[in-house]
Amino acid sequence: MTETILVVDDNQAVCQALALTLELQGYQAVTCLGPDEALEVLSSREVDLVIQDMNFTQDTTSGGEGRQLFYDIRTCHPNMPLILMTAWTDLNTAVELVKTGHADYMGKPWDDTKLLTSVANLLNLHRLSRENSTLVRQQTQRQQGIRDADLCGLIFASGAMERCVDLAVQVAASDVPVLITGPNGAGKDRLADIIHANSVLKDKPLIKVNVGALPVDLLEAELFGAEAGAFTGATKARIGRFEAADGGTLFLDEIGNLPLSGQIKLLRVLQTGEFERLGSHQTRKVKVRVISATNANLTEDIAEGRFREDLFYRLNVIELVLPPLAERQDDIPALVSYFIGPDFSISPNARAALLAHAWPGNVRELENACKRAVLLAKSARLEAQDFGLTGQVMEAGQTNAPTASSHPAKKISRADIEDALAAHNGVVAHVAKSLGLSRQALYRRMDKLGIAR
Ligand SMILES: Nc1ncnc2c1ncn2[C@@H]1O[C@H](COP(=O)(O)OP(=O)(O)OP(=O)(O)O)[C@@H](O)[C@H]1O
């Protein structure tokens, strides 16, 4: 964008010379011969910088007129960058004015190079301060929006989480589908609660289905319902979760685990609201807002034919990317004090260890570590060893990969699982806990890696 510079000088020749110099540098120059005209221009069009003389009436050399114009401009445009063109008699006044900020002075006759440098510097400074004010304003608005929202007990202190929560609160107002992506235990379920709690549907049901936790053959009956006799063991008719959520919100966790046949049905409900219970030809219709979540790389699943692309775009109208805990370190102390409660505190050593840990199981792992620390603590001041942190620590300078659906969540390796199985004598509940995974997530990972159950 071309920046506009207003030149105010009672000498027409000076105006023309300055305008030419500025225009040759790509600025747009507007000239006027006195203060009244200058103030009129400033009130009627966008100006980015003013170059002004200090005296406008013949035989006046006090600089008083220039000072008056300076303050008149400042009254209406407090941050307007200004360059004062001074004769030696005005120097003291100019120096005094420059001290108020956003201003510079140039002795007459001026040096073109110095003048252009000063113009560029002031414009740059002005741009930065404008950008900064925009950021501050946006942050204040965000914080206000978040303050007014129901955060369902979510604890956070990091900017990354603030942005994520802000987006959740904003999208809550509409009824578009939201896909929450992020690693296990990072708080995707919590974010779904926030979206529902701040939506117009907040008094309607919020139904949650962990798609990954259900056996494939029961999943469709669970989602869409089944008539009696629809499959072995279905002795009576059951309504599905879509019907239960009618008028409200349905949260589909671990959506990446939905088999292809279920994906087709889900796509149809999202498009038309229609579906049939298993074993029935009667078409039913519901109005449900769908929030889904995944820790899987759905774009990879699409490329490998495991997930329908059309369904992905339906679910993913808005994507909320929840960063891993290791990428939002400011949340760690806040979460720790919440989980250990007011009767406990942590030593500086413990704090350092908690910040250095890589948290592959994210907040769930942190919550478990805190519970353990509180149980085993010998005093109210918790030490690093009370948290039992073994295994992964963040390497210096490490930043984990982003968790957008195009990037996989941090992997728990075969060796991690085998080590944990050995350490916990194969007790899956303990292994899952130590890795910060749900039992189902652990089983799925073991199956994928070919580790015997
Ligand atoms: N910011 C937070 N403040 C308080 N508790 C949190 C926060 N984030 C997560 N938790 C707690 O951590 C645990 C795991 O969170 P949640 O179930 O929401 O994670 P998730 O990403 O849905 O995990 P999964 O992918 O395994 O389903 C829960 O007990 C949840 O209440």
Automatic annotation (TrEMBL):
Gene3D superfamilies: 1.10.8.60, 3.40.50.2300, Homeodomain-like (1.10.10.60), P-loop containing nucleotide triphosphate hydrolases (3.40.50.300). Residues 154-375 form the Sigma-54 factor interaction domain. Signal peptide: none annotated. It holds the Pfam family Response_reg. The modification 4-aspartylphosphate is found at D53. Keywords: ATP-binding, DNA-binding, Nucleotide-binding, Phosphoprotein, Transcription, Transcription regulation. PROSITE patterns: RESPONSE_REGULATORY, SIGMA54_INTERACT_2, SIGMA54_INTERACT_3, SIGMA54_INTERACT_4. It comes from the Bacteria. The keyword Metal-binding does not apply. Residues 4-123 form the Response regulatory domain. This is Sigma-54 dependent transcriptional regulator. It comes from Shewanella corallii.
